[in-house]
Amino acid sequence: MSFKCPACKKEWPNSKQVARHMFGTGDKAHRAWIESQGHSYIELLLAQTTEPGNKSYEILSDLIEKAQDKL
Question: What is the DSSP annotation of 4-58?
Answer without folding.
Answer: E-TTT--EESSHHHHHHHHHHH--HHHHHHHHHTT--HHHHHHHHHHSSS-HHHH
